Amino acid sequence: MVGISPFARTSLAFVFAALLPLSGQAQEAFQTFKQLDTTAKMPKLNAFIAPGTAPQGSKLREVALEAKLTANGDAVQDGLSWYVFSPMAGSDGKLPLIASSQGGSADFQLAPGDYFVNVSFGRAGVTRKLTVPEDGTVGKQTMVLEAGGLLLNAVSGSDVRIRPDQLSFSIYSAEVREDGERGLVMADVPPNTVVRLNAGTYHIISEYGETNASIRADIQVEAGKLTEATIQHKAAQITFKLVSEAGGEAIADTAWSILTAAGDSVGESVSAFPTMVLAEGEYSAVARNKDKIYQRDFKVEAGKNTDIEVLMKDVQPEAPTAAARTVQLQADPQPGQASSGPQPLPSYDQLQGATGGADAD
Questions:
Q1: Which of 15, 278, 324, 350 lies at 20 to 30 Å from 300 by C-alpha?
Q2: Do 149 and 197 form a contact (C-beta atoms < 8 A)?
Q3: 3-state SS, residue 232
Q4: Contact, 114 vs 129, CB < 8 A?
Q5: Tens digit of pLDDT for each residue in 264-276?
């Protein structure tokens, strides 16, 4: 993949910084960074039971639930969302929510019967069927998430730091659907943010700036581990100025168009000195000011942020309004003679007559 740093066992566009087991200090790492998820905010209660969901006269049983990232790991102490659903759909076609809980392990009072239990940890989640018996003890229910964490960042060139507000990541499923698209898992993920995901491979798109600097990579998330990946962009930040002389002040009221070597437009702006992030390659900067057009070719090298000055002497030549025409006059054939083959060049008198320079007697 062009513009991507190799890793020891892969050719993906990222560098693993660490793979940390998610126990003890790793769980603290999960809590250190802002967590992104789209889980609906539920009441801050240990356990919420929807009223009227338990049959009258039924004996409620206590059910204890815990979740682990891996089968051999410790129980997750925070960041879990629990939902208990009835298996019978309601009139709206949806499964009624019976109970919910936020935090770590959960304790529910449930009537005997069958339920669906879902637990989510960020974007990671698992669902299982739960049967509550009428008699006997109900042992603690342990649900294994098989989840890990992903923390993304990026550099320009080999090691040039990129401002966080210029970076964003989108996470997609690795599988391609029948329509040729991938399923979006999460969009607009800021750098240095831990995203909790089910174990598996994910397709990452990193956007640097808003022009054409984009890198793709497939990243493996392992259960019980925090994967840190740094993507390497082959791009640079370029600032443009129209000046009357080298090193002069930028001229205001200038419209800019940035073209690739093939002539495709990749960015436009109306500013004295616009700044754009461009992928590595060759470009042309076209500046328009007071009905005049100025142009300069330039090259972008990865990680080399620079200023491009377009001098007002670099006026783009205007195309002629009409193509020049060449008229060749030929002598008229004598009466009775056919015109064949090349004709002799006209005489001076004939030229004068063709241009109207002399009056005929």
A1: 15
A2: yes
A3: strand
A4: yes
A5: 999 999 988 899 9
